[in-house]
Specification:
Blueprint: H1 2-24, E1 30-38, E2 57-60, E3 63-75, E4 86-90, E5 93-94, E6 101-103, E7 115-120, E8 127-147, E9 150-159, E10 163-171, E11 174-183, E12 186-191, E13 197-201, E14 225-236, E15 244-251, E16 256-259, E17 275-277, E18 283-288
Parallel strand pairs: 1-15, 6-10
Antiparallel strand pairs: 1-7, 2-16, 3-4, 3-8, 5-6, 8-9, 8-14, 9-12, 10-11, 12-13, 15-18, 16-17
Length: 289
């Protein structure tokens, strides 16, 4: 009898630990979002149509280091209005600079193929999604620059969100103090191997934001909500047995554009050549289940 009692006590003591272990390792699957940068992808305009570089301008395909997004949404159809789809992500905002703006201090900045967002699939509304919208806010990339007949490499930090509150930011050992809001198109630049840096502002409305749904689902002026279509609609059932990995492929095809006053196809700011466009040139979302 004593042995039986001891056995029962041991089983009762074991059960709580067994239950806790079950609760701590649920069979959860995730929606995972990553970025890809493609210089060979089609170069699109604001309406999602193929576009060439205008006469008198020049452009190059920058080599991306990092990127950040302010907003991500899945849209069921071409008629789904912005904000009425399934919102997956909305970055922190602040009024520290006066008007409401993206808070760069809290931005999540990632490199290519790094996880930008990972959320349980049970948090994503079940349905069929044909389109994806990604509001980009920050880009960091390498560009080629000419000065006094010599070519150099430099890094450009480009803020393309509707408005961004920045205390300070840096490019390598170069620090830029702002302490305020900056409109879409603010940029800062530094040479990679020489002590030179500068900053400026692209013209209002000059940033390209491809939206093939402009006729049925427009986006606000000054925003950077790039829209792209899945080749095969993304189906979310809520009963997935694997993670769903979505890759947001962005076109960097001649996405850095300037007025080529020389003209020689070389970006030469010391000769008065000014940046006119830093917008990405298209979005193609794909997924793997």
């Amino acid at each position: 009898m004593k042995k039986l009692i001891a056995l029962v006590v041991a089983v009762l003591l074991f059960l709580p630990f067994y239950s806790c272990e079950k609760e701590e390792t649920p069979n959860t699957h995730y929606l995972i979002l990553k970025f890809k940068f493609d210089p060979t992808q089609e170069r699109l305009n604001n309406l999602g149509q193929i576009a060439s570089v205008p006469t008198g301008h020049a452009a190059q395909s920058p080599v991306f280091n990092t990127i950040s997004s302010h907003y991500v949404e899945l849209a069921p159809t071409a008629n789904t209005q912005l904000g009425q789809g399934t919102i997956l992500y909305h970055a922190p905002e602040t009024i520290a600079g006066g008007a409401n703006a993206i808070d760069f201090n809290q931005a999540k900045v990632v490199a290519e193929d790094e996880v930008f967002l990972k959320i349980p699939l049970k948090q994503v509304a079940a349905g069929s999604y044909q389109w994806m919208r990604v509001s980009l806010s920050y880009q960091n990339y390498r560009i080629a620059v000419r000065h006094s007949g010599a070519d150099y490499l430099g890094t450009l930090a480009s803020f393309v969100g509707f408005k961004t509150y920045i205390t300070n930011h840096s490019i390598g050992n170069n620090f830029f103090t702002v302490n305020g809001n900056r409109a879409q198109g603010y940029w800062a630049f530094a040479l990679n191997d020489f002590p030179y840096s500068s900053s400026g502002q692209a013209p209002e409305g000059a940033t390209t934001v491809p939206n093939p749904l402009a006729a049925t689902s427009p986006i606000p002026a000054g925003s950077c909500v790039v829209t792209g279509q899945f080749a095969v609609p993304l189906q979310i059932s809520g009963n997935e047995t694997n993670d769903v990995v979505v890759t947001m492929s962005l076109s960097t095809n001649q996405s850095f554009e300037w007025i080529d006053t020389t003209p020689d196809g070389k970006y030469e700011p010391s000769a008065g050549e000014s940046v006119v466009d830093m917008g990405l040139r298209g979005l193609i979302p794909t997924y793997v289940k």
